[in-house]
């Protein structure tokens, strides 16, 4: 059972209070983009075994979307952070690096 | 290879069972193979088997990081059916179901295929309409399914509660030749037959890299050294994205946990498989007497083979309402597997951006039933460059928006 902290309202709760929303920081491609770009945006996923950045929604709480950095191989949650960013903030990266020195960084 | 038979059993009984031989060899890897299959689950082993049997290609190695059949193939609830909605699905799942019918004879290994009948309950008006549509589609596809009413359901499954307060049983989609088989035996039977054809099954050997040159595959790096190959088939279910990353491309796949659990063994009480997709649960009784239960997947990416408790709770609650007699049963074991989910809930059997590399993945929550058909089609794809069974399941369908949508027809895991 995952325990997550909602960065929007501060509540610490079990996963049943949240709804998972898949990979975070997707770069959106719309009209005018190539078929490959559009396909990549819609379907291709990193799905890594290890550090993963992902979207969650505090569905049975404040209702807001937020992001989380989590290890898919241990279920350890490194940090949760607000969704208004196009890539993981420096302090989140630092927290992950401290625990996973071999991690190749955000790509 | 000595064949298994009644005479062999009698002969061995007379000499204290000292004459049985190992079912497969455990060789060290060679430097080079024509075809390397990564993943000794059912799909990888079946791919190798039909490469040899149908196409005469036996210079094949199957590389497995753990033990053969230790992935999802040895963790699933063994439901076999072919009552899918779309034509390409019907073709490959029915090919598989048909091959299961005499797989034991073909492999000379008892896979305990038990076409005991399978019911998918309709518990909302919407579901009833959906399943009736499937029955019509199946009729056109030449697949034997029918729609039956609530009283017929009760006759087939006396322990069911058809007038549950919330979701009464309004009828069911019945596939009489659906059922179950012994999962380990499917992997073991294929492995034994592959080994007998001279193929190498290499266990405890993890693939750690894929070598390519000029967009063409050269070989793989493993915990037992470098191995070269002409063609590489990646058949690793939940780890498909990890292997694709090694080869330099991405897949439309997310890996999530799916769980199953079994009760203590009880006397025979249900001789069909029952799936209740609206309430998210399904159940069958194993030959040992255990009630075998499964439900839905977790929603988040996961490689731990451990699922979330609340799904166990949700499914058990739903099944207790559907089958009141199980309320006093103790659960014996629970486990999880990592399933490879695609957006349209259909598999990917395809060439890839790297020449010589093929993928067979995306079977998600429902690939056990497909093992023989998938192996048959995949072998043809590798040997001939295409196969009528796999042509529609290529990676290009995502770019083209040509989905094979089975997410409506099969709302729950199985
Ligand atoms: C709980 C549960 C219940 C299910 N119930 C059903 C059901 O009732 N009916 C049904 O039809 N399907 C069911 N399924 C789905 C079914 O189990 C799978 O679709 C099917 O078994 C997949 O087979 P596979 O051969 O592709 O994968 P697997 O059996 O998982 O084999 C893949 C193999 O690849 C190996 N591997 C991975 N990475 C590497 C590497 N780097 N190097 C070497 N080897 C590697 C793994 O160790 C593994 O043995 C269920 C699944 C689960 C988890
Ligand atoms: Zn909140």
From TrEMBL, chain A:
<protein>
    <submittedName>
        <fullName>Sarcosine oxidase subunit delta</fullName>
    </submittedName>
</protein>
<dbReference type="InterPro" id="IPR038561">
    <property type="entry name" value="SoxD_sf"/>
</dbReference>
<dbReference type="InterPro" id="IPR006279">
    <property type="entry name" value="SoxD"/>
</dbReference>
<dbReference type="Pfam" id="PF04267">
    <property type="entry name" value="SoxD"/>
</dbReference>
UniProtKB/TrEMBL annotation, chain B:
<dbReference type="InterPro" id="IPR036188">
    <property type="entry name" value="FAD/NAD-bd_sf"/>
</dbReference>
<keyword id="KW-0288">FMN</keyword>
<keyword id="KW-0274">FAD</keyword>
<dbReference type="InterPro" id="IPR006278">
    <property type="entry name" value="SoxB"/>
</dbReference>
<comment type="similarity">
    <text>Belongs to the SoxB family.</text>
</comment>
<keyword id="KW-0560">Oxidoreductase</keyword>
<keyword id="KW-0963">Cytoplasm</keyword>
<dbReference type="InterPro" id="IPR001763">
    <property type="entry name" value="Rhodanese-like_dom"/>
</dbReference>
<keyword id="KW-0547">Nucleotide-binding</keyword>
<dbReference type="InterPro" id="IPR006076">
    <property type="entry name" value="FAD-dep_OxRdtase"/>
</dbReference>
<keyword id="KW-0285">Flavoprotein</keyword>
<feature type="domain" description="Rhodanese">
    <location>
        <begin position="34"/>
        <end position="79"/>
    </location>
</feature>
<protein>
    <recommendedName>
        <fullName>Sarcosine oxidase subunit beta</fullName>
        <ecNumber>1.5.3.24</ecNumber>
    </recommendedName>
</protein>
<dbReference type="Pfam" id="PF01266">
    <property type="entry name" value="DAO"/>
</dbReference>
């Amino acid at each position: 059972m995952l325990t997550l902290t909602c960065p929007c309202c501060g509540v610490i709760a079990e996963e049943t209070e949240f709804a998972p929303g898949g990979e975070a920081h997707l770069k959106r491609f719309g009209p005018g983009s190539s078929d490959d770009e559009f396909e990549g945006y819609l379907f291709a996923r990193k799905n890594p075994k290890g550090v993963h950045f992902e979207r969650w929604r505090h569905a049975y709480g404040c209702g807001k979307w937020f992001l989380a950095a989590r290890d898919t191989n241990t279920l350890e949650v490194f940090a949760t952070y607000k969704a208004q960013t196009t890539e993981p903030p420096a302090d989140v990266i630092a927290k992950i690096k401290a625990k996973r020195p071999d991690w190749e960084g955000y790509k | 290879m000595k064949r298994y038979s009644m005479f062999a059993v009698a002969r061995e009984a007379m000499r204290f069972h000292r004459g049985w031989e190992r079912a497969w060899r455990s060789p060290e890897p060679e430097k080079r193979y024509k075809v390397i299959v990564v993943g000794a689950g059912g799909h990888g082993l079946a791919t190798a088997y039909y490469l040899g049997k149908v196409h005469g290609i036996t210079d094949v190695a199957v590389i497995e990081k753990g033990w053969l059949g230790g992935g999802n193939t040895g963790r699933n609830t063994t439901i076999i059916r072919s009552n899918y909605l779309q034509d390409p699905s019907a073709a490959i799942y029915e090919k598989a179901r048909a091959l299961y019918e005499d797989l034991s004879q073909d492999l000379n290994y008892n896979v305990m295929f038990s076409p005991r009948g399978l019911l998918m309950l309709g518990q909302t008006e919407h579901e009833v309409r959906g399943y009736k549509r499937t029955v019509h589609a199946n009729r056109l596809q030449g697949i034997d399914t029918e729609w039956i009413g609530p009283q017929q359901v009760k006759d087939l499954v006396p322990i069911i509660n058809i007038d549950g307060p919330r979701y009464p049983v309004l009828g069911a989609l019945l596939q009489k030749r659906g059922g179950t088989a012994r999962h380990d035996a499917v992997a073991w039977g294929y492995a034994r037959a592959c080994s007998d054809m001279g193929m190498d099954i290499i266990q405890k050997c993890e693939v750690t890299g894929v070598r390519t040159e000029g967009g063409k595959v050269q070989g793989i790096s493993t915990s037992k050294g470098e191995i070269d190959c002409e063609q590489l088939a990646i058949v690793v279910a939940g780890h498909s994205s990890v292997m694709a990353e090694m080869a330099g491309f991405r897949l439309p796949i997310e890996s999530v946990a799916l769980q199953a659990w079994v009760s203590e063994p009880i006397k025979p009480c249900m001789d069909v498989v029952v799936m209740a997709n609206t309430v998210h649960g399904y159940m069958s009784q194993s030959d040992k007497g255990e009630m075998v239960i499964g439900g839905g997947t977790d929603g988040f990416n996961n490689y731990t083979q451990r699922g979330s408790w609340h799904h166990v709770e949700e499914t058990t609650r739903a099944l207790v309402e559907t089958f009141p007699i199980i309320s006093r049963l103790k659960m014996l074991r629970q486990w999880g597997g990592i399933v490879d989910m695609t957006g349209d809930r259909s598999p990917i059997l395809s060439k890839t951006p790297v020449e010589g590399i093929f993928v067979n993945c995306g079977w998600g929550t429902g690939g056990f039933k497909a093992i023989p058909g998938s192996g048959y089609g995949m072998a043809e794809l590798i040997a001939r460059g295409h196969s009528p069974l796999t042509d529609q399941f290529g990676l290009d369908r995502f770019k083209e928006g040509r989905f094979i949508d089975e997410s409506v027809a099969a709302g729950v895991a199985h």
